[in-house]
Amino acid sequence: MAQDTPPVTFDSVPAIERPEDLFAVATAMEREAARRYDQLAERMDDIDVPDLAALFRRLKAMESEHEEGIQAWATRAEVEPEQRLSFTWDMAEGIAEAALADAGGAESLTSYKALQLAVRNEERAFAFYANVAAKSSDPTVREYAERMADEELHHVALLRLERRHAWRAEHGGSSPSQAPDVDTVEDLATWLADRDAEAAARHRMSAAVARLSGDPETAALLEDMAAKRDPQSAPATDADLGDAVSLVQMLRHEIRLGSEEYDMLMRVVDRAQDEAVLALAQEAVAGTIARLAALRDRMASLEAASERDPRV
């Protein structure tokens, strides 16, 4: 292989078949994340948001530590990547590269937009590692991909919480989502079971639509989500798929519902007086974050494919 290649993205990452492949991609992703967090910290300094600038610098340090950790893992596993990759982040909607590169773009890069960009890329990183772990037949690849997915999920949770605070600050209050009326852990468990059953039936219906549309990958993702939420559910013929007329719109509808669920659960977390309620709500939040990351990643892949070929 050549030693240097053009920058890759989440949608053009080489196939991961061996530990060498995983370590090459992971090193490039961590290096790019550290670079981007450095840029975001500088832009937050420009608009005088010191707390968020400090958070981004902390994340930069964490990403740099992860890169060093990956190199240490490679050494212990006696793995030497055959190529040096460069990686580039996705730009979130409404954010131009210039807004990150210099202070001239700082005016358009609000706290919320900065966090939106970070969440988008951490979600895609989590989904990438989780997908590698699920599909690889190499035990070393699976082990390290699972570890990396756990690390990225921690970042997603941290950034989502900060983004929630930024949304409230920019919109003058809390979101319109209502917290479920739960006082005990039994109440919350019942509410979650009802949500799971409803969502699983909807996922199975959406999966059937995806298969009929010739997209087995989206179908498999939704079927897996349905099985994990409620193994006994059957497709609901009257499931609410919103106004979806395409797979991207269908996924966007799922993301909207998942985001509402995340916000409702976070309101439970905010108000919880009982430790058992708090623990169950936090566990449910983690599951919701993971599902949202997978959905957003798949939607981004479909959008990228559509840009390359409008017939997709």
UniProtKB/TrEMBL annotation:
Xref: SUPFAM superfamilies: Ferritin-like
Domain Rubrerythrin diiron-binding: 23-160
One of the Pfam families matching this protein, by short name: Rubrerythrin
Any one GO molecular-function label of the UniProt entry: oxidoreductase activity
InterPro entries, per database record: Ferritin-like, Ferritin-like_SF, Rr_diiron-bd_dom
Annotated protein name in UniProt: Rubrerythrin
